[in-house]
């Protein structure tokens, strides 16, 4: 993976430059709101880089309409992780952000993040609260964000860090490296774990910093079953690391069970019932005191009953198709 080292850019007064990168592909429907939320930030100096992966809709025309207000980079064929990495390598900021092309910043997001990092010099990164919204921007529910606890993240296979709200010091990115370009769905969870293993400190601001949009064309909903294999790959690679602290290594049994349980849930809601049953069984074998591990093994009747009684947790307010 290419180095992220770069010459430090001059500061404007005492304010560090912030660089925000947006990876996009055929994102025209929501792109204007995303770009507008970045360009309307009250904080300066702010650099904005958009990396397009070869869009065939009106994405490029929309972006060109902003002129010099943003830097447009065309790199067809790249995945999301590669696009973010490319943008971060090109960026001149001392603080780096990443906002997907259908998500939106709150007006003071960048200013709050910088204020926190300036007043907490030991923090390597900062993130905040976030709401899930639908295609029309209506709030569905809060993202279950919370303080950064590496043991809890690894042991639960849950992600308490809403990616659109994250800002990282360049030094941390240089130390940890870029996003894993072999991942396309759980790349953020992998990165937060890698940051924690590297000793990075991530601070949590308990207030809304962004919205994360869920819509029918969203990659995370269209490719739900792909999360399963990536959850498992992340955990297999994690526990194969020779530098893994012993305290985390002791979590292996619990962590792999929870990763398999999460994989089973994704497969269950994607309708991949035989695979869901296999992962659910393996999760339960490692954690027999957790009978809920077996719920994703219920198959099509179980899915129908679960949706009727409680709804599909991966669809929130979206219409089922």
Radius of gyration: 20 Å
How does the major sheet shape up?
A: 9 strands, mixed
CATH topology of the largest domain: Spore Coat Polysaccharide Biosynthesis Protein SpsA, Chain A
Give the overall pLDDT as a whole number.
Answer: 89
| CATH architecture type of the largest domain | Alpha-Beta Complex
Low-pLDDT segments, ≥5 res: 1-13, 317-321
Instruction: Domain count, please report it.
Output: 2
Query: Which CATH class of the largest domain is shown?
Result: Alpha Beta
Summarize this structure briefly.
The protein contains 13 helices and nine strands.
Can you walk through the features of this model?
The protein is an alpha/beta fold and 321 residues long. It has two domains: 18-220, Spore Coat Polysaccharide Biosynthesis Protein SpsA, Chain A, CATH 3.90.550; 236-310. It has 13 helices and nine strands. It has helices at residues 28-39, 59-64, 80-90, 109-119, 150-156, 170-176, 187-197, 219-222, 224-239, 246-249, 252-269, 273-286, 299-310, and strands at residues 18-24, 46-52, 71-74, 95-98, 104-105, 125-133, 139-142, 167-169, 202-213. Strands 1, 2, 3, 4, 5, 6, 7, 8 and 9 form a nine-stranded mixed β-sheet that branches. β2, α2 (59-64) and β3 form a beta-alpha-beta unit. α9 (224-239) packs antiparallel against α11 and α11 (252-269) packs antiparallel against α12 (273-286).
């Amino acid at each position: 993976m290419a180095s992220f080292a770069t010459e430090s850019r001059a500061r404007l007064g005492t304010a560090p430059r912030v660089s925000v990168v947006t990876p996009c592909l055929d994102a025209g429907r929501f792109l204007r709101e995303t770009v507008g939320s970045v360009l309307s930030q009250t904080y300066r100096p702010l650099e904005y880089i958009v990396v397009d992966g070869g869009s065939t809709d009106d994405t490029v025309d929309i972006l060109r309409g902003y002129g010099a207000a943003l830097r447009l980079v065309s790199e067809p064929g790249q995945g999301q992780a590669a696009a973010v990495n490319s943008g971060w390598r090109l960026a001149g900021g001392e603080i780096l952000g990443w906002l997907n092309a259908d998500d939106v910043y709150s007006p003071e997001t960048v200013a709050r993040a910088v204020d926190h990092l300036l007043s907490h010099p030991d923090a390597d990164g900062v993130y905040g609260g976030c709401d899930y919204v639908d295609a029309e921007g209506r709030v569905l529910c809060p993202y279950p964000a919370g303080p950064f606890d590496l043991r809890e993240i690894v042991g639960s296979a849950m992600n308490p860090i809403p990616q659109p709200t994250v800002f990282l010091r360049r030094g941390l990115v240089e130390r940890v490296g870029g996003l894993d370009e072999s991942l396309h769905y759980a790349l953020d969870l992998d990165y937060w774990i890698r940051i924690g293993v590297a000793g990075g400190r991530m601070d949590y601001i308990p207030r809304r910093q962004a919205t994360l949009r869920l819509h029918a064309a969203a990659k995370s909903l269209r490719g739900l079953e792909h999360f399963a294999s990536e959850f498992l790959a992340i955990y297999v690679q994690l526990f194969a690391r020779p530098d893994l602290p012993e305290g985390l290594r002791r979590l292996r049994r619990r962590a792999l069970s929870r990763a398999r349980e999460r994989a089973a849930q994704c497969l269950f809601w994607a309708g991949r019932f035989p695979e869901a049953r296999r992962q659910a069984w393996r999760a339960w074998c490692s954690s027999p005191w957790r009978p809920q591990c077996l719920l994703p093994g219920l198959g099509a009747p179980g899915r129908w009953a679960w949706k009727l009684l409680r709804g599909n947790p991966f669809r929130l307010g979206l219409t089922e198709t």
